[in-house]
Design a protein that fits this description.
A hairpin with a 2-residue loop joins β16 and β17. The strands form 7 sheets. This protein has a 5-stranded mixed β-sheet, covered by helices on one side. A 5-stranded antiparallel β-sheet has the order 7-6-18-17-16, with helices on both faces. A two-stranded parallel ribbon has the order 3-4. Among the domains are: 1-30; 61-250, Biosynthetic peptidoglycan transglycosylase-like (Penicillin binding protein transpeptidase fold); 605-649, no CATH class. The protein is α+β, with helices and mostly antiparallel strands. It starts with a helix and ends in a 15-residue tail after the last strand. It contains 23 helices and 20 strands. Residues 95-111, 125-129 and 248-253 have low confidence and may be disordered. Helix content is 39%, strand content 14%.
Length: 649
């Protein structure tokens, strides 16, 4: 009898050992478990500060173990698996006890899962209580123990467990419940959080403060019993009040939402993945956003734009580097995420004229070139008459200079110039400025009937700001994956000279005229309403159509384009609505430059500044000493006559 029992025991042991060897060999052959854990994608400004956290389905951050408070680690080990560092994935003493209790109660309610088993379940399996799931969980846990260190398993566990309210992992939970990083958690806070995963719907302090504090107290007791904390620490922690904040600050999307959305779309296209996948892959996306510039732009829009349906699109480019430092695609992203800077094309009005006048300078114009400003009809190739009009039908009724025509935005002067230059050459000039949109080769092209995006117009003007050198605006600096690998790095192309520097400067100086009241004539200069706000040199051009209002301009440092209008092309009738673009531009540009030294536009050696009467275009003389200003000409093209006789104007 004894022999038979010994034989059976020997057979059982042999079978068990064989079975164990087979399981181990199978686990080794299977290799480490392969998984892809969703993790938040984080977006940074140009200073490396977080501006947005993009979630996939789950809100999750991944931290290295040494980035997590030791209190958190000790609390989880004391609460969930005090022998974690001593077993190979399974606590057989606890398993035996659990089996005994389950047999007695005839159910599977009693658990004895180690941290390794819980990690396996969280990543690979459902939480259904079945023997099949338990077996799969054990096999995966064994593979984890074979191929990962204890610290790697613990790190994965703490970063993947669910804390309720959509928060996965300790960092997301810490920020959600306490508005702090997990490395900053106090002992009592760590113990409270460690109690939630056992049953988030039961132990969340938001759902039940009593349950949460009861479990916190139990965990603190376990930490003391297992030697993780002293009696004094235990007493202090139990007596401490825990203030749950449940802040939404980690998902604060109130600043730079249009900018962030634009960058995410670019990154999605660049990486050839959809937005949902991008937002859950744990990328770190570094942008060119200048936080103060973005905040000033948004606050200016909020303060300036009136109530109603009027919309806005605005963008600022550092034209020396190409960095887009601020972008506002509309009045309110939450109400309308449509990005009017990038996606919308609107008629440009007179903001198109600088392309014309650059061509005119190349074709021989100077700031003193005069043309008649009076009602004029033009006969087109098809025999039809084209009769443009000035704003409110105001005309000089005598010749005016190019300098004054630019400052007053005289339409008759512009169309006559386009007929001289020829529309096909105006299109070529616009292409030189990087305008890619469709352009009609017609006399009225000078007045901006073509539809172009604010982004494209800002890029074109930034070339003037960069003294004629090419500018390629960009917002995406680099992308780093969750493993720290740089998978995209912006690499700027060497700048190319697109505009002849002397002509570019003369045009820039002409564009400062819209703010110079010395150029007032039969109308005020177009920037008269904002000129007294400006404290430094700016060049720019406003423009309007019945349904569009523009202001685009630049300093030696930045180029900003502002468009306002209604999405349905409703006519802009109210005076306050018509002035919004200029008001936003002027107020914002002053804020943007507030801490910068005042710098003039650099004068190239190929131009000459002389004192000229901007009304007649003649050199300073007895008849115009009180209204002359420095104007710039290509050397050799300066006026030679003086205004010795009183002007008839």
């Amino acid at each position: 009898m004894i022999k038979k029992i010994l034989t059976l025991i020997t057979a059982f042991v042999a079978f068990s050992l064989t079975f164990a060897v087979v399981i181990i060999i199978y686990s080794v052959l299977q290799g480490p478990p392969i998984y892809d854990i969703e993790e938040n994608t984080v977006i940074y400004d140009q200073n490396g500060e977080i501006i947005s956290i993009e979630r996939g389905i789950e809100n999750r951050f991944w931290l290295e173990l040494d980035e997590i408070s030791p209190h958190v680690i000790d609390a989880f080990i004391a609460a969930e698996d005090q022998h974690f560092y001593d077993h190979f994935g399974f606590d057989f003493k606890r398993i035996g006890g659990a089996i005994y209790h389950n047999i007695l109660s005839m159910n599977k309610g009693q658990g004895a899962s180690t941290i390794t088993q819980q990690y396996a379940r969280n990543i690979f399996l459902t939480h259904t209580k079945s023997w099949e799931r338990k077996i799969n969980e054990a096999l995966i846990a064994l593979r984890l123990e074979i191929f990962q260190s204890k610290n790697e398993i613990l790190e994965g566990y703490i970063n993947t467990i669910y804390f309720g309210h959509g928060q996965y992992g300790i960092e997301a939970a810490s920020q959600y419940y306490f508005d702090k990083e997990s490395s900053e958690l106090e002992l009592e806070e760590a113990a409270l959080l460690a109690g939630i995963p056992k049953g988030p719907s039961v132990y969340s302090p938001i759902q039940s403060e009593t349950n949460a504090l009861d479990r916190q107290s139990w965990i603190l007791k376990r930490m003391h019993e297992t030697g993780k904390i002293t009696k004094s620490q235990y007493n202090d922690a139990v007596a401490s009040d825990v203030n749950v904040i449940t802040t939404a600050s980690v998902d604060d999307r109130s600043s730079g939402q249009y900018f962030t959305d634009y960058v995410l779309n670019q990154a999605s296209e660049l990486l050839d993945i959809d937005r949902d996948q991008l937002e859950g892959e744990g990328y770190h996306i570094y942008t060119t956003m200048q936080p103060e510039a973005q905040k000033e732009l948004e606050s200016t829009v909020l303060e300036t734009i009136p109530e109603g349906e009027l919309q806005i699109g605005a963008i600022t480019i550092d034209h020396h580097s190409g960095k887009i430092v601020a972008l506002q695609g509309g009045k309110d992203f939450d109400k309308s995420p449509y990005n009017r800077v990038i996606q919308s094309k609107r008629m440009t009005g007179s903001t198109f004229k600088p392309f014309l006048y650059y061509a005119a300078l190349v074709y021989g114009y100077t700031p003193s070139t005069t043309l008649e400003s009076r009602p004029t009809s033009f006969t087109l190739d098809n025999g039809k008459e084209y009769t443009p009009a000035n704003f409110n039908n105001h005309y000089a009724e005598h010749p005016i200079t190019l300098a004054q025509a630019v400052a007053l935005s005289d339409n008759i002067y512009a169309v006559k110039t386009n007929m001289f230059v020829q529309p096909e050459n105006l299109i070529e000039a616009a292409r030189t400025f990087g305008i890619e949109s469709d352009l009609p080769a017609v006399p009225s092209l000078a007045l901006g009937p073509a539809s172009i995006s604010p982004y494209e117009m800002a890029r074109a003007y930034s070339i003037l700001g960069n003294e004629g050198w090419s500018v390629e605006p960009y917002a995406l600096e680099k992308i780093v994956d969750r493993n720290g690998n740089v998978i995209y790095q912006h690499s700027p192309e060497p700048p190319e000279r697109l505009l002849e520097e002397n002509y570019a400067f003369v045009l820039t100086h002409l564009l400062t005229g819209m703010f110079d009241t010395r150029l007032n004539g039969y109308m005020q200069v177009t920037g008269a309403t904002v000129a007294n706000q400006l404290s430094r040199p700016y060049a720019g051009k406003s423009g309007s159509t019945p349904s569009d209002s523009w202001m685009i301009g630049y300093s030696p440092e930045y180029t900003t384009a502002v468009w306002t209008g209604f999405d349905d092309n409703t006519e802009i009738k109210r005076t306050q609505d018509q002035r919004v673009a200029k008001n936003v531009w002027a107020t914002y540009m002053e804020k943007l430059h507030a801490d910068l030294p005042i710098e003039p536009f650099r004068v190239p050696t190929g131009v000459q500044g002389v004192k000229v009467d901007p009304i007649t275009g003649l050199l300073e003389g007895p008849a115009c000493e009180d209204r002359t200003k420095i104007m710039y000409y290509l050397k050799g093209t300066e006026p030679t006559k003086t205004c010795s006789e009183p002007s008839s104007s």
